[in-house]
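During the reporting period the student researcher (J.K.) took over the structure-prediction task from the postdoctoral fellow and processed the backlog of single-chain submissions. One of the processed entries is reproduced below for the supervisory committee.
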Amino acid sequence: MRRNRRIASVGITSLVAAGAVAGAAVAGYLGLRAEGAAKPGTYTVKAALSTRQSVPRAKGTTTASGAFTGTLKVATKGNGILTWKLTYKRLTGPALSAHVHLAPVGKAGKIVVPLCAPCKSGAHGRKAVSQAVTAAIASGKTYVNVHTKKNPSGEIRGQIKATAASGGGGTSINPYANLVVKATPALVAQGKTLSSNLGCEGCHTLSGANSTGPTWKGLAGRNVKLTTGETVKATDGYLILAIEQPDAQIVSGYSSGIMTAAIGNISLAQAKALVAYIKSVK
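J.K. obtained the following structure tokens:
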């Protein structure tokens, strides 16, 4: 028992140290400048946790599950306050700890927000988070993981989704708003190959013709009308968000869920290459 307490103490100390550098680490991962923050306002956050999402796959159970809910209040400078609640059931043993980690679906990543250690179902709290961590949560690049003795790498996991609350930050949550992609010949070629490998042109024509998704011909820099009635410009940041979070801003006349189901998760580096290729399609 004493040994376990010492281990827990060391773990908590390590988490505090990790938190001190989390902002810089997240900013580097996202490739963000300071002005690439989430739009100020209040967002609802949630994640459905299950064993099948764990990386590596959880051992000893397939029925454990949980839920992470709360709000993310984003200040004008982009930093935020995360208010959260965690519930779970049917774990293989006590929850030793739970955290918010940085990584897309299917990847394991570093801790950016420690939640509890040890934990009980119904645990809740309030955490101040940096601009970079706030942007990562808003952009769907974080997940919640609950760790047990049998599954120290995580027994149940779920990707966090953030949605603008009524009267909150509006329709756009775009941490890539100020990113600019330099369409070099090499990056354009990389994007063209990636488009072919992912089958992008099965939904996005290069001729201007309508298809399952908007045509890529002349798309870059064009004004785009969304299902919300808002009109936005197809900047590099808009295009990256459209690739990274296809359901964040749906173009009028098109449906949600199609691109997510078709291609799954795309890394930021891949998204930049695709944007370079899209910019070349005049």
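The committee noted the following: The radius of gyration is 20 Å.
J.K. will present the remaining backlog at the next meeting.
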